[in-house]
Specification:
Aldehyde Oxidoreductase, domain 3
Length: about 140
């Protein structure tokens, strides 16, 4: 198992235990799941793939940047790779802070930033038998 990228199901309880702190008055959890519909098509599964060494580095950097930019106690990110079925948890961000505003801001920063920077790709499978790699977010500074 890697620190941030894993083929196994994400253990949310383990992440909550790992980040627990008596100094935290707030925690925010963002969880992304495989949804059943996209662009008018019925999704049956998503296959996530990654260049894992670079993905590990990118997700660790997002955590570190969140810790630097916000008044938080912890930020932990996990992302699945492999084939996931509808309803399965694909990504989780857990942030703990003394106050909710900081936890919410850092959680939003973390998920938005990882979507733009982590080399993780997804290929959706549809009920009509087709599969498509989805276009990702634009990288910061791209096209300038």
């Amino acid at each position: 198992m890697s620190a941030h990228v894993d083929r196994s199901a994400i253990d949310l309880n383990q992440l909550l235990t790992q980040t627990d702190s008596p100094d935290a008055g707030a925690f925010v959890v963002f969880g992304g799941t495989v949804r059943r519909h996209h662009d008018g098509k019925t999704v049956t599964a998503i296959e996530y793939s990654a260049y894992e060494p670079l993905a590990e580095k990118a997700l660790a950097e997002v955590e570190a940047h969140a810790m630097e930019q916000f008044d938080i106690l912890s930020c932990v990110i996990r992302h699945r790779v492999d084939r996931l079925e509808v309803g399965e948890l694909s990504v989780v961000v857990v942030v703990r802070a003394a106050h909710r505003a900081d936890a919410f801001a850092a959680g939003r920063f973390a998920i938005d930033t990882l979507k733009k920077t982590a080399p993780i790709w997804k290929r959706e499978a549809y009920s009509d038998g087709t599969e498509v790699y989805l276009q990702g977010e634009t990288l910061p500074g791209a096209g300038e």
